């Protein structure tokens, strides 16, 4: 019994599979450690089968072994870049929670996050879990997958300098957005330090330094509760930034 393969189809599928695996190994939620490797491989196979024809029409297929390795590596990097942009904006919740703990004047012992299997501060885990809930409830997972499939309609997608420029811009947006989430606590902590400094000068017998740290922790928790209703609006803004980054990368 002989099994015949169409070489044109096989090369296109290998390239599509390379891009899909690069995306799945980096992008949230596929890259979470709780997702088994076999499940990621199965998703990569399915994505490759669904995008092979679009990729064949978007690029020129290589005719040599060296060219095949080079184009497959390029497709792997393209998928990893798309996945990294998605992961970057989803990780905003954890980074914002870490800044909340830092600005709050207390550093809680790290706890094991059951989803990422990493040790993160409790505040970071709290914000990260809320961010994940918003990610699935708002349909942002569909946006991430749609952006990946839309990349197959764009020829000559990977330009190193252009991609690095978008990456730097995205990291800057991530840092600024994290500061926006933690800014209410930062402002309260700043003014509390001013008040304590004034009390220390005006009434030194109060020993203000003895209650400043419990006061900071109390104010931090209060501001965390106050800032919770604002998280959906910040999440919506971060998703718009993600869409802008994908649009710039895809040239649309």
Automatic annotation (TrEMBL):
Stretches that traverse the bilayer: 12-35, 41-64, 76-106, 126-150, 157-175, 181-199, 206-231
Residue ranges the record marks as coiled coil: none
Domain of life of the source: Bacteria
Protein's membrane topology: Multi-pass membrane protein
Cellular component, GO, one term: plasma membrane
GO terms, biological process: protein targeting
Cell compartment(s), UniProt: Cell membrane
Primary location group: membrane
Pfam families: Bac_export_1
Keywords recorded for this protein, A-Z: Cell membrane, Cell projection, Cilium, Flagellum, Membrane, Transmembrane, Transmembrane helix
Family from the record: Belongs to the FliR/MopE/SpaR family.
Name of protein: Flagellar biosynthetic protein FliR
Organism (species): Ferrimicrobium acidiphilum DSM 19497
Gene: fliR
């Amino acid at each position: 019994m002989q099994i015949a393969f169409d070489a044109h189809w096989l090369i296109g599928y290998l390239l599509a599979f390379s891009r899909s695996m690069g995306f799945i190994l980096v992008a949230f939620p596929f890259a979470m450690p709780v997702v088994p490797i076999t499940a990621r491989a199965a998703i990569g196979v399915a994505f490759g089968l669904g995008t092979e024809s679009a990729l064949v029409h978007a690029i020129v297929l290589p005719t040599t072994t060296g060219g095949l390795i080079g184009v497959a590596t390029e497709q792997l990097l393209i998928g990893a870049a798309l996945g990294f942009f998605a992961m970057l904006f989803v990780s905003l919740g954890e980074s914002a929670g870490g800044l909340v703990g830092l600005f709050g004047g207390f550093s809680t012992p790290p706890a094991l996050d059951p989803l990422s299997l990493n040790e993160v501060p409790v505040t970071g885990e709290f914000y990260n879990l809320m961010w994940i809930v918003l990610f699935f409830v708002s349909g942002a997972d569909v946006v991430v997958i749609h952006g990946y499939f839309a990349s197959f309609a764009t020829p000559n997608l990977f330009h190193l300098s252009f991609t690095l420029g978008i990456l730097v811009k995205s990291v800057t947006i991530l840092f600024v957005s994290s500061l926006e989430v933690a800014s209410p606590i930062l402002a309260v902590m700043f003014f509390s330090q001013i008040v304590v400094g004034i009390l220390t000068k005006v009434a030194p017998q109060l020993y203000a330094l003895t209650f400043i740290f419990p006061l900071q922790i109390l104010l931090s928790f209060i501001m965390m509760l106050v800032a919770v209703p604002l998280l959906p609006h910040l999440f919506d803004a971060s998703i718009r930034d993600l869409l802008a980054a994908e649009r710039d990368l895809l040239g649309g």
